[in-house]
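Tutorial sheet, problem 5. The two components below are modelled jointly, 466 residues in total.
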Amino acid sequence: MKEGTLSVRKIVLAAVLSAIAILLGWTRLGFIPVPTPAGNATIMHVPAIIGGVMEGGLVGGLVGTLFGLFSFLQATVPMFKDPLVAVLPRILIGVTAWLAYAGLKRVNEYLALVVSAAVGTLTNTIGVLTMAVLRGYMAPGVAWTVGLTHGLPEIVVAAILTVAIVAAWKRVETGRGEAKM
Amino acid sequence: MEDFELLRYVTVGQYLPGDSLVHRLDPRTKLSVFLFLTLAATFSLSYTANAVLVLVTLGLVLLAGIPLRYILSGLRPALPIIIALAILQLLFYGGHYVPYGLESRTLFQWGWIHVTNGSVQLVVVSMLRFVVLLFLTSLLTNTTTLTGLTHGVEAMLRPFARLGVPAHELSLVATVALRFVPLLAEQLEIILKAQASRGASIAHQGKLRFVSTARQVAVLIVPLFVDAFRRAEDLILAMQARCYVGGRGRSSYVHLEFARGDYIAYGAGLLFALAILALRNRFPV
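Model answer (structure tokens):
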């Protein structure tokens, strides 16, 4: 059986992770209230990071793209109703996370997961804020404030979730301690 | 119990059945015109161009028979953020932006606050663009079924297959993703109820305690992911057992065909968008 660039496994995992990203956006479960001007830290980019870590840059990029498209289609804030802000930076989340993971995997699995979560989150935060400044939705000063106050909690939350999810799944997959959840 | 009904308030992206001219267009036409007009709106900086775009898209929304109140109802929860961001934009962006078609003038300055006619233009144009794109997405997603959209995307990507773009596989990703959303929503409700019955509080604890909120979310998210992976493994196994291979030589149950109306709508959309883009530096203000 010959398969193209996208194997069945990659197609299905990209789809399922995108579905989670879409669901997190719809249910507002993807927003965690934090004490900053914009009000919410997001975890909706975590599926893209996990896609990149588990299945490589292509899947990570696909999940990020679908996440970006949906956040554009259902945006209720002018800033995210702009494809250059909502879609473009999101494509890269899974790709940079995958690069970080692939580079550090040999050193230490957990370290690689934490760093790739941080790198993926930073890609999202910096990418979106840079585009927002370039497109005139935010003044540079405001963007710096948002970046610093949001970036840190988002990195922490994303790292915790990525490690928890990948560890939980890998343990289930290898059959050690099959925990029913 | 309302806390457990997760997809109750989703209004964006839902198909509203109807039989208007817009409803009857081929999904490829709608996707293309949507792309053209989105580009035109994204790169227009002047008052006039954006006002013209608002009027045209408003006309299309009325033609499609989508109630305006329905489109705007989704905005209500986001209103405070919209206003807060607009005020920040107005107060702090002044010194960095050269207004389109006008001489830069300072209207108000006090300490850090710096309002110019440029920042006023920026805020107004952002809002107009927002309205245009809101109407456009509503025109696309409220008049086309999701399956129609994915068939349209696949058909539009097919010419790129020669360049190695896996058109069929990409649209399959989108189809499976959309099919999985309600399944996972159901699963999430089950997880929510299970955790709540064990005494876990699922209400947010206020802004200052975001770490504990994040931990509560993890209690929901981790099982959700693990369940999703399980379902994914089952689907992968089922597809591989049936020797699924991608797009080449695969025929489709749905055949999209362009009617006369599609050619007209496609041409009109393309010409209008090109006109806006070509004239974008020539509008008076």
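Marking note: Chain A touches chain B through 66 residues (CB under 8 Å). Full credit if you identified this.
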